[in-house]
Amino acid sequence: MKPVIAMPSDQLIEVNPRMPGDYPAYAPHDVKEAVMKAGGIPIIIPFPDDERTAAHWAKEMAPLYDGLLLPGGPDIDPRLFGQQPIKEIGMTYIAKDLFEIALIKETLAAGKPILGLCHGLQILNVALGGTVYQDIHTQNPDAYIQHTQATIGNFLTHTVDIKEGTVLHELMGSSQEINSRHHQAAWKVAPGLVVSATAPDGVIEGLESRDSDQIVAVQWHPENLFNKYPDQFTVFTNFIDRVNKAKKGS
């Protein structure tokens, strides 16, 4: 049987006077397509509105899937890493953050693989004890690249350098051109994670587990690139391979 891949939902916060509280939950279309093409069965895992129940529902839902894919999403609530919000921060949704953190912990405890994309990389880092820049260009004076691209999402905008000895290096080699649409990024790296890729200005573009291949995460959006650039698809095929390997070992 193909592995089941869970994707935590995002949520459109829109006012509909005819249907108050009718906020669609969704996951990115291109991520779903990449998972299916790579050989997985994607399912959307909704988060509870009551943030106090995040840990409970994560424990209930974790047995339903074989691997966890954390896609892009809103900014991360800075209270989760001991900061107050600066004026440049965007929309946050702490109920989603807390649920994803709880899912991450349940998934890791169960020995199941994780793939993080953009927001997914950032929430992984926070869940494991790291921090993020609330806004790169406000808090990092050395960041000279425009990381929030103004062009179409499947266009390449800058390069990343990939470190030898990492899973990402095995998949993509020492350098890649990527797309880029984020204004937050990992800052202090969590214990147990290592940096696998950086932009030319030093901004972190990849993180993964220090002593295993359980976690692989990238700051860009390979789901928008995989149909045109085969190297980008390896992020998803590797994820499904890791999930299948973990299933066989369980």
TrEMBL record:
It comes from Ligilactobacillus saerimneri 30a. One of its GO terms (biological process) is polyamine catabolic process. One of its GO terms (molecular function) is gamma-glutamyl-gamma-aminobutyrate hydrolase activity. GO terms for cellular component: cytosol. The keyword Ribonucleoprotein does not apply. SUPFAM superfamilies: Class I glutamine amidotransferase-like (SSF52317). Keywords: Glutamine amidotransferase, Transferase. PANTHER family: GLUTAMINE AMIDOTRANSFERASE PB2B2.05-RELATED (PTHR43235:SF1). InterPro entries: Class_I_gatase-like (IPR029062), Peptidase_C26 (IPR011697), PuuD-like (IPR044668). Pfam families: Peptidase_C26. This is Glutamine amidotransferase.
